[in-house]
């Protein structure tokens, strides 16, 4: 039904005297949509392709990059330390648990993360 209405509207606009106005509105709508889409792409954490290996801390989150993706994890999403000493993190977007190995972090960094997780 919506396709029929849009087709009828497009036909009436094309064959009317106001085709230039409809074209201008369409062009502005397209530009606005592209700008909005680009801003959504920038907000699409926690994954970024092509990230290099590394781990970082700040007051709000833990950054983990494994060579393919980069994750920004708030301390509240770190579920627990697993039995081997790694981190089990609840992914924000997909809602699944991922275990990061202890070797990726090192003992000093794990101790800092553990203190921050326990303080929350």
From TrEMBL:
UniProt key word Transmembrane: yes
Keywords, alphabetical: Membrane, Transmembrane, Transmembrane helix
Membrane-spanning parts: 18-37
Listed name of the protein: YcxB-like protein domain-containing protein
Organism for this UniProt entry: Gordonia effusa NBRC 100432
Lineage start: Bacteria, Bacillati, Actinomycetota, Actinomycetes, Mycobacteriales
